[in-house]
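Reader question, answered in our methods column.
A reader sent in the components of a multi-part assembly and asked whether the whole thing could be modeled at once rather than chain by chain. We filled in our standard form and ran it. Here is what they sent:
COMPLEX SIZE: two components
ENTRIES:
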Amino acid sequence: DAGVIQSPRHEVTEMGQEVTLRCKLISGHNSLFWYRQTMMRGLELLIYFNNNVPIDDSGMPEDRFSAKMPNASFSTLKIQPSEPRDSAVYFCASSFGSSGGTQYFGPGTRLTVL
Amino acid sequence: QQQVKQSPQSLIVQKGGISIINCAYENTAFDYFPWYQQFPGKGPALLIAIRPDVSEKKEGRFTISFNKSAKQFSLHIMDSQPGDSATYFCAAKGNYGGSQGNLIFGKGTKLSVKP
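And here is the structure of the entire assembly that came back:
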């Protein structure tokens, strides 16, 4: 079985540009989590969906960040406009169930904003 | 109350030694405590997890010890091997309100096992 799939794996962009990160959930999973990892702040939860509905977006840093689930198996995280402080590794993870279950992480997207 | 405090930040252990990583939490509503292992360039992966109704869980060389009254839990890696060198994250999850699925992660411990 394929795990969580993220694309692109690496993204280098210039400040002010729009960045879209993509995530495909494991088949049958219905919860989706977006995380950001930096040396300074560790692993931070940005937003969490259950059955395509955003449940908790309190970790989204500001209005420049938006996340969607256009269908049950796919999600996007968009940053517009991007800033150098957004440079980080972004992970998505999926799980089955609304209150538990192991979270399976994707390989991450390393974003560099120049 | 939502924090999980992890220590140490980094740990160097000789091959064959015991690695111990500690975590502490405040929120008594947490009811699931997993440990994740992350290798460079990879996403975190579940290593072992415990619920607060038991005080210890062992899987191979990996053991979680859980102290509910002290609100602390720890990961012990017995007979540490160079292949165990990775970053380890403790986490906690509560089954309450709108955050039923959220994991709260510690800051991570970078483990290096020297041959």
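What stands out: Residues 35 and 45 of chain A are 4 Å apart (CA to CA). Chain A has a mean pLDDT of 92.
Send us your own complexes using the same form.
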